[in-house]
Design goal:
Order of helices and strands: HHHHHHHHHHH
Helix content: over 70%
Structural class: mainly alpha
Number of helices: 11
Mean pLDDT: 84
Radius of gyration: 34 Å
Largest sheet: none
Low-confidence stretches: none
Amino acid sequence: MSHNKLSKHDLKDDTFVTYMLKAWEYLRENQNKFFIGLVILVVVAAAAVWMGNSRTRARETAREQFSEALASFRTGQFKTAEEMFKIIEERYGSLEEGAAAPYFTGRCALLQGRNSDAVKSFEKYLGKASKQPFYRDAAMEGMAVAWENDRDYAKAADIYLELAASLKANTFMETTYLKRAADLLKLSNQNSRAVEVLEKLLEKTKGKERIEIEQELGALKS
């Protein structure tokens, strides 16, 4: 059986061949554009890989430095630990370690008797607590202690009341914070508010503690 060759006319009428010829012609005319596009894709892919590796290295370094700072803190080297936590906050503010660092900076300042610095650090941490909420209650308590140390009893009492009403963890501490608030309100000559807090506390206590609160209320109201 003989095999008939396609004529030039037949080739032109062949849809697949026509498509390939047009595609080849388009590529030849736009090869520079395609080359530039390919280069851009390669650069973007390389940048994505580099950024991913960079973030991974940053997380690992942040964890290592945070562990070292915690070790200094736990061994009582508060000045050294404070400087380390400040560096972590500056370098890794977008990571959990960087978000938690101001809390420990505040603790270091508080333990060194620098109450105003402690308050500033605790406030900074609370502003970022959504990233690392674990220390939220402790930071608020630290602020209250700092204000109490500076004898600003009214501010300390307000923080204890806010903390008691919004505990995220350790809810068993609610009555303790209410009692501290009541004591501080009395020290700041706000006896009427102290009575309100003690009446609220009375509903949450029993036994010997309840009797003591009733006696305290009686003295304040007399």
